[in-house]
Amino acid sequence: MEERIVAPDPVEDPQGYQQALLDLLGDQDALDVLASTPEKIEDLCADLDLGILQKQPEPGEWSAEEVLAHLLDAEVVYAFRNRAMLAQPGTHFPAYDQDRWIGLPHPSFPEMLAAFSTLRRLNVWLAEETPTEEWGQKHGVHSERGEMSFETALNTVAGHDIAHLRQIEQTLAAVRG
Prior knowledge:
Blueprint: H1 14-25, H2 30-45, H3 50-54, H4 64-87, E1 91-93, H5 98-102, H6 109-129, H7 132-135, E2 139-142, E3 146-149, H8 150-176
Parallel strand pairs: 1-2
Antiparallel strand pairs: 2-3
């Protein structure tokens, strides 16, 4: 399924995609964005009927629930990658096919949001407890994007959050409109 966000394709142009996410972050603090995303999703989706959350704006586009499923899947991946970068610098990690992962079974929207919120808190805590001088020194090697520092990874994920928060807003506007 396709994303409603505007960015280069993450598979066809991985460097362009990463740069687009970094551009979305701009001069915002990555940890502030990362820490606030679960609450922003909760605010956007509070009191919405499950039918609205599961409704795709167009055939082949993700529903708000599918966007959350993607964010949860991605957070699992980031949790591993970040720990690998910090504990075993230079670790190579594979890309993953988000469209195939979105097809895997996922729990209900409230359960996904709770799991995402908890895992995100752990990942933000890890970053907060890692000395900032290590952020640029510790790195991993992404199979599509090449070498990436821990700092670049955090900033990219924060931009990813911004993109998908916009996507949820667009999706909900389209399905409620």
